[in-house]
Structures are given as C-alpha cells and as structure tokens.
C-alpha cells in the first residue's frame, strides 16, 4: 500500500510541476493539475493539504533530484578538478531529466511572493532553504578543497560557488525540448557547461 501511495504522490508532483511550468506558478490551479491527471481534486488533497503545499513540495523536490544524482559520484580519491567535472556533468543531466521542477523554482524566484503567511508555509520555506544549502555544500566542499590545494584559484568562495551554479543551471533559463533536436544535444550542452564551469575555477 505504501508503494502505491508513493507512486501516486510522485505522479501528482510530476503533473503539478508540468502545470506550474506551463501555466505559471501563480496561475495554475488544483483544478488544472487534476485535469492533467484525469482525476479529481480529492486525490490531490489526499496527499497535499493545499495548492501552496503542493507548490512547496515541487520546489523542495528540485534540489533533492540533483542531490540524489550528484552525491554518489563524489569520490575522495579523485582530484578536485575531476570531482567537480563529474559532479557538474551529473548535475546538468539531472536538471535536463527533471526540467519542469527547476523551471518552477526559477518562476517562483523571479516572481517572488511576500512573506509566507502561515506556520506551515514558513516551515516549508525553511525545508526548501535547508535542502538548497545542503546541496550547494557538496559543490562548496569540492571548490574549497581545490582552492586549499592550489588546484583552483583562490577567490571568494561564496561568489565562486553561486556563480558557477548559475552557469550549471543555465538550461533552466533557455532550454525547451524541440522535435528536431539533434541526437545527443543535451549531453553536448552538459559537457560544454561542465568545461566552462571548471575553466572558471582554474
């Protein structure tokens, strides 16, 4: 039973991410999401207490996708350069694979709303911030190690980290799949951006 609930939960999240991305985080309604699922609003409210809770869950999932992909490729036996490049490639591939979630994060950020109104909203915002910072710390540790070893230029660590992550997240700003897209295009983009990110460090 728990697996069925989990599958339904993720199916709702996927549908919500696509609706929020397509219609906008302020415009997409629970009705829109239910319609895209071919189900009732009751199914959604069984898992999520409100539209805001559903949007928060979509935003929370974005750094979880990338963390689950990137953390396993980190290897203490590799140099900071090798580690960073592997992490960057994996990060970009994960972003392409779960693009609607990341576009929702971008939409919410650029059209940022006021302070969260309820305690549950504030708790969700705290969880999202913690997940984001926890994921950023993976890259922070590798960049810091490279600066300490002399492999990377010594620069302001926070500025370097956030600037490089903006570069690695560049497809969120401009990419949309096309029917005539060349085979291997996203892999080529991932390699180019990973190379550019590494070049900014050395």
State the main characteristics.
202 residues; single chain; Tetracycline Repressor, domain 2; HTH_TetR; DNA-binding transcription factor activity; 10 helices; Tet_transcr_reg_TetR-rel_C_sf; mainly alpha; disordered N terminus; globular
Distance between the termini: 51 Å
Shape assignment: globular
Q: Portion of residues in helices?
A: over 70%
Give the name of the CATH architecture.
Answer: Orthogonal Bundle
Q: How many β-strand stretches?
A: 0
How large is the count of helical segments?
10
In CATH, the topology is named: Tetracycline Repressor, domain 2
Query: In the residues, how many domains can be counted?
Result: 1
GO molecular function: DNA-binding transcription factor activity; transcription cis-regulatory region binding
Keywords: DNA-binding, Transcription, Transcription regulation
Organism: Antarcticimicrobium sediminis
InterPro entries: Homeodomain-like_sf, HTH-type_TetR-like_transc_reg, HTH_TetR, KstR2_TetR_C, Tet_transcr_reg_TetR-rel_C_sf
């Amino acid at each position: 039973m728990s697996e069925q609930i989990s599958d339904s939960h993720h199916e709702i999240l996927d549908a919500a991410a696509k609706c929020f991305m397509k219609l906008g985080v302020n415009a997409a309604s629970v009705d829109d999401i239910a319609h895209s699922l071919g189900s009732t609003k009751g199914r959604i409210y069984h898992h999520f207490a409100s539209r805001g809770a559903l949007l928060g869950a979509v935003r929370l999932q974005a750094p979880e996708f990338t963390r689950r992909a990137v953390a396993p490729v980190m290897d203490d036996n590799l140099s900071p350069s090798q580690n960073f490049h592997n992490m960057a490639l994996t990060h970009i591939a994960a972003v392409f694979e779960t693009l609607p979630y990341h576009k929702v994060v971008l939409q919410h950020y650029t059209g940022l709303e006021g302070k969260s109104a309820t305690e549950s909203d504030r708790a969700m915002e705290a969880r999202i911030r913690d997940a984001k910072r926890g994921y950023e710390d993976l890259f922070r540790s590798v960049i810091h190690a490279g600066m300490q070893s002399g492999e990377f230029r010594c620069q302001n660590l926070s500025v370097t980290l956030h600037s490089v992550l903006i570069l690695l997240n560049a497809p969120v700003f401009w990419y949309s799949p096309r029917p005539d897209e060349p085979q291997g295009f996203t892999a080529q983009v991932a390699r180019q951006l990973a190379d550019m990110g590494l070049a900014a460090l050395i």
